[in-house]
Amino acid sequence: MASHFRLRPRYPIEVRVTVRRQHEKSARKVEAITANLSFGGVFVAVDPPMPVGARLRVGIASATTWDPLELDATVRWVRDGGATVRPGMGLAFDPLTPQQALALHGLICAHGFEDE
Fold it and tell me: pTM here?
């Protein structure tokens, strides 16, 4: 039995994202795609992933908002690619504002997932 425990369910949602470091002078953004999404974080499939502990700004493309949803996050873990898995990084979102939570809820619902 797995000992891993999550507070929030993950949803298998693939959407385009941009990722950039929060405190770099360069505005360089990396384009990637999500593999799953929750109210607590996201897995971003990207090669190479950024290092554990990096502070990021994630822009999530959504058909439910005019502009991308911008969320601050921290890299919690990274995964190297392999024959059956994509390389990427697991991000934990900073606490969401009510507006961010509502926008994220709209995105999740737009992909056919409802609260249980």
Answer: 0.85
β-sheet bridge partners, residue 43:
36, 90
13, two tokens:
């949602």
Question: Between the ranges 9-13, 38-42, 77-81, where is the mean pLDDT highest?
Answer: 38-42
Spatial contact of 57 and 70, defined as CB atoms under 8 Å apart: yes
Pairing type for strands 69-79 and 30-37 reads unpaired
Domains of the chain with bracketed CATH: 16-110 (2.40.10.220)
12 burial class (0-12, 13-18, 19+ CB within 10 angstroms)? exposed
In the prediction, which pLDDT does 26 show?
63
State the DSSP string of the chain: ------SS--B----EEEEEETT-SS---EEEEEEEE-SSEEEEE-SSPPPTT-EEEEEE--TTSSSPEEEEEEEEEEE---SSS--EEEEEEPPPPHHHHHHHHHHHHHTT----
